[in-house]
């Protein structure tokens, strides 16, 4: 087993200590799909998280973002393929109304991961996003495993300081 695989396994064990259970719920934004069209994305997730027991999900707003990128003069050539792939995922009903001003993916993800704005990842989602600002914001939503793609490699970030603190506290309480 590679060093990185071991490190990620240990990391996910730490997250399981904080309430994560398989199948892992894996929530991703549209940019991940757009950036990985030529890769076997699900296999990458399975390998990185050392399990086949995961549930890829996408919110209604993130799907809508893909449809928007598939229209108009600035149409993203990867969008059609990304939509096809997203259709295989479970749709996370975020409840943001289609006929009103749509939420940005950032706002949608924040409301789904931390619905009460209390800094808690209530439903224990693993989040994959290429949006650095969103990852930065989610580091203070406890506990949230964060993933992104860099040069065709799927990266699992080390546990953020806020989550690690809770992890230590829980362990001491045992
Ligand atoms: Zn939404």
UniProtKB/TrEMBL annotation:
<dbReference type="Pfam" id="PF04900">
    <property type="entry name" value="Fcf1"/>
</dbReference>
<dbReference type="InterPro" id="IPR006984">
    <property type="entry name" value="Fcf1/UTP23"/>
</dbReference>
<dbReference type="InterPro" id="IPR029060">
    <property type="entry name" value="PIN-like_dom_sf"/>
</dbReference>
<dbReference type="GO" id="GO:0006364">
    <property type="term" value="P:rRNA processing"/>
</dbReference>
<keyword id="KW-0539">Nucleus</keyword>
<keyword id="KW-0698">rRNA processing</keyword>
<dbReference type="GO" id="GO:0032040">
    <property type="term" value="C:small-subunit processome"/>
</dbReference>
<protein>
    <recommendedName>
        <fullName>U three protein 23</fullName>
    </recommendedName>
</protein>
<comment type="function">
    <text>Involved in rRNA-processing and ribosome biogenesis.</text>
</comment>
<comment type="similarity">
    <text>Belongs to the UTP23/FCF1 family. UTP23 subfamily.</text>
</comment>
<keyword id="KW-0690">Ribosome biogenesis</keyword>
